[in-house]
Amino acid sequence: MFIGIDLGTSSIKMILVDYEQNILATSIASLTVQNPKDGFSEQNPSEWIEATFECLEALKSKKPKEFSETISIGISGHMHGATLIDDKGSVIRPCILWNDTRSHQECIEFENQSFDVRSLSGNIAMPGFTAPKINWLKNNEKESFNKIFKVLLPKDYLRFYLTGEYYSEMSDASGTLWLDVKKRKWSEKLLSCSFLESKHMPNLVEGNQETGILKSTFKDKLQFKHNVKVVGGAGDNAAAAVGMGITEPNQSFISLGTSGVFFAPTKDFLSNTGDAVHSFCHCLPNKWHLMSVMLSASNCLDWVCSVTNTSIEQTLKNVESFYSEKDSISNAPFFLPYLSGERTPHNDPHIRGSFHSIKTFTDSTNLQYAVIEGVSFGILDGVNSIKKVNSDFENIFMVGGGSRSSFWIELLSTLLNRKLSVCEQSEFGAALGVARLGMYVDDNINYENEIIREIKVSKEYQPKSSNMDLLIKRYTIWKDLYTSNKKNILTI
Known about the structure:
The chain is α/β, with parallel strands linked by helices. β18 (278-281) and β19 form a beta hairpin.
């Protein structure tokens, strides 16, 4: 048996699978995020530990016999988080998360070097990445900075707690800005930009390689029969890709979760830093991927439901009916979905969300439609940014909470002019992905080529040609609104 752990921002999800990759049991435990100031986003790693063992105990209670036969554990996690460890192995301060924007000034400083940071890292410096966060700490919390023994990504702190070993893997490490992504190793040059050295970093492996054994105290507590191996795992999106079987250039996926992601594997290292496209290693050897990221996707829907006092289900029902009328779409307002700034293609931590073209007859349904349309336009922005350097992808799969809305996927299919496929069990895709990576270290498995395979498609959506021209026209208008809105933004 194999366990996959997915450390998300709002919850930990866990899955138990057998040798045939049948899902035997799942469990979920909630997490909280602290926002002490505007632009600040933090999480206490102790919550991760508590939630992890809550989920493990839940799996054990559901399938005790199968659980006891676990061979390996794979761990996925939200990327870019700065988890600081002192020389006693203790956490120095709360983890600064991926959606924290406090380090925008440090990004400028990070790139102001005597060498081309972007060409070496393959990425543009953004507040979401790990490196600028460390630079911010040096400038603002020197005492915490001076205590640093190791800088760990969230899932790698969980690994350290479970095994006592300091390891990370290539996909997650790519999001630090300290990795030479092309050569798949830590760069002393890039580390020096944050006043660090390779000794402050965990060891690097590929996602399917062993990183240690579960501590005997945990083995005994959970009543495992075997020494449980812990593998490298993956960053959340790379893990989801493996969970869907997406490792080759003709495949890709869109995730409509808290953030919006377009993920496209590549044959070789490619980059488009001009559009703030992420260029990362995949979690399997000798594979890479490009990724566009918008910071606010389904949470825009959550927000508009809150302010209009409408449930998500009712909102989607309202908007679907609205979408069926061309005149309604033509007169709808526009929404810029930048509630927390934006990454691809703007790399702008200061921009904020806004409505445009509000009219006297604009009601809550108009606003709800504008939000969903605006998020969809943001996804298209990301796809177009990746197309500039890579257009090999043919099959696009859908995951994330937004993928449960048939209307939303149909709108995206029309806008992208592509067939979109929804995968079964996508909610646990990342957990399944790292459980699959864990299968590589089982000596009893000799069918490596069958471990990574596409999961079943539950439904396919085709473009609705009748609305295509109108949506593209509105997208053209929408794109110009960013420039005009940026001129009027008030930065405090």
